[in-house]
Amino acid sequence: MIRKKRTTLDDVATLAGVSAITVSRAIRHPEMVSEKVRAQVESAISELGYVPNPAARMLATGRSNMIGVVVPSVTNNVFSDVLRGIYEIAGIADFDIQLANTRYSPALEDKALRLFAAQKPAGLIVAGIDQSEVSRDILANIDCPVVQIMETGPDPAGFCIGLSHFDAAHAGTRHLIEQGYTRLGFLGARMDPRTQRRFAGFRAAAEEAGAYSEQRVVTTPEASSVTKGAALLADLLAQEPTVDAIFCNNDDLALGALFEAQRRRIRVPDQLGICGFNDLEMMAAAEPPITSVRTYRQDMGLRAMQTILSCVDNGPVTPTTIDLGYEVMARQSTARQRG
Amino acid sequence: MIRKKRTTLDDVATLAGVSAITVSRAIRHPEMVSEKVRAQVESAISELGYVPNPAARMLATGRSNMIGVVVPSVTNNVFSDVLRGIYEIAGIADFDIQLANTRYSPALEDKALRLFAAQKPAGLIVAGIDQSEVSRDILANIDCPVVQIMETGPDPAGFCIGLSHFDAAHAGTRHLIEQGYTRLGFLGARMDPRTQRRFAGFRAAAEEAGAYSEQRVVTTPEASSVTKGAALLADLLAQEPTVDAIFCNNDDLALGALFEAQRRRIRVPDQLGICGFNDLEMMAAAEPPITSVRTYRQDMGLRAMQTILSCVDNGPVTPTTIDLGYEVMARQSTARQRG
DNA sequence: TTGTACGCGTTATCAT
DNA sequence: ATGATAACGCGTACAA
């Protein structure tokens, strides 16, 4: 049986024998209503299965409890972890999350932000710091807390919670050098701005140590995957067989590279050191365990949400930048026999 | 500079020198408006950067262009693929996706559906067929197309797009038997209803071949991961070292099991056959490549969206069930030397 | 503590 | 082809 009309505040009010506004108050500010009335209202609500109409609420208040989240990919493990952090808080704090997937397209990002802006969100979480002019403009003028995650950088559009990918990649590369590797290679996919900065970090560290060669850099604009990691390593070996360690754009590539090395009976870490980026769960479980630069992705989601919540509660706060840092998780894949 | 008031239909109307309702029509039914007026309106819209207020629209029409998606996890690769399919269509068809994460909790699923129902969605996509009584009730009474994905089963709540996990697991297990393995084991994590049905499929096939033993079944209620796969295999080997092949709940476990086997110098596939479930991208790239039962997850998301779109366009259609099937991707991890 | 009047931005309905 | 009016469900401001 289909109920044609949804139950409204008025229905509840009638059943409870009070006026609509009283019901509204009983829901939002229970302390402003007498004990007795509150009980009547509550039982009426559950009897009717009343749920407030978010659209009407938004129209009346001019704001929603929606938090818009803009990410470039939903398939990537990296963002799944961020989302987990976000939903963790969203659940307990009763916020609606609306996810926009830009697929690494600035145009789609503009579109998503424009749509969000029209909905008076309680907050906005956007991945990365490479928004277009248009997007920056929307973010600058919107009347809600904005949190950029994944990365820290100059001139943030609001709050910023992330890390320096340049530094993190630099540290991972330093680790390779400290392990005694001298002919470093780089495997990269997608090559979006964030990836580029990781590459820059690699390059800087490698050059400082005289371990860099353009011949040992292999990249593709396509999305990263384990399969692609294997293919890129194959390309690299064809081009410069003397490479003795690789820094990978991310963990998928690193895992694929490990598999390819195994296929070719290349000994890891002795003949080839492998370092990934992000430290996905599987890195530690691999055989050999793969060294990776750990990032705190779930924490970024968590903190982004907490930031927004505290703005909602305490009114506007001056935006801050939080650097969550990174950690080089040294494992067997780079544990070269010294000497 | 912060614009205090958002631009409304009236603003556009004033600038264009027409009335609000005309602007509304120019947007939704351009063919009902004269060429001249349409041009004026369009230029006014882009000059003001007008974006319709979805809340007001919803309040007026009683329906939204939101599609609610209910999944038990956002971290799991399996659902990421489904989401990719969904967002692919959502982008081009201008639907808002709202994602609810139930974390495998029926109570959270009820809550999510109730909230969605209050928003008059254009459609609902829910993962799985194991909804609670409350949820089934909501789905039965809601006035929009409902699509259950991931799995087919009796008594669907609406459209149903998936596969029989029992059959798929049965087929994967048959494959192991056909390869000559006779002492089959099972690795399982989470053990939600869908997983249970996969186990049932495994068990049925194994028993039919006299290859089943309860001693070779190792499961955990915790979430699956590569690490967990390694741990479960270790448990299994401690308990029943004679196992000669394992069917894994999913690919994460399979990969972890492979790593653990490598650590112990157990030869795959000769000493131990490994079969996963879902056929994530990395399975084919592993060394050795891992056999897995392929499912069509992105396609499920895609088709679920298309189903909803066609309902929106063509009015109510009688719900159907689509079985997308599965395919056993036989690879080296089960390519045992015969004889 | 509780109630009344009005407005939020849009669309449906009924004119013109 | 275009416009006036009411209504959607709720919250704010003010009143009782």
Count of folded domains of chain A: 3
The gyration radius over C-alpha positions of chain A equals 25 Å
Order of helices and strands of chain A: HHHHEHEHEHEEHEHEHEHEHEHEE
- Beta-strand share of residues of chain A: 15-25%
Shape descriptor of chain A reads: elongated
User: What is the helix fraction of residues of chain A, given as a range?
Assistant: 40-55%
Give me the side-by-side strand order of the main sheet of chain A: 2-1-3-4-5-11
How many strands, what sense, and barrel or not for the largest sheet of chain A?
6 strands, parallel
Q: Which chain pair has the greatest contact?
A: A-B, 57 and 57 residues
CATH homolog superfamily of the largest domain in chain A: Response regulator
What's the number of helices of chain A? Answer: 13
Oligomer state equals homodimer
Secondary structural class of chain A: alpha/beta
- Overall pLDDT level of chain A: 94
Give the N-terminus to C-terminus distance of chain A in angstroms. Answer: 79 Å
Find the count of extended strands of chain A (DSSP E, 2+ residues).
Answer: 12
CATH topology of the largest domain in chain A: Rossmann fold
Spans of at least 5 consecutive residues with low confidence of chain A: none
Per CATH, the class of the largest domain in chain A reads Alpha Beta
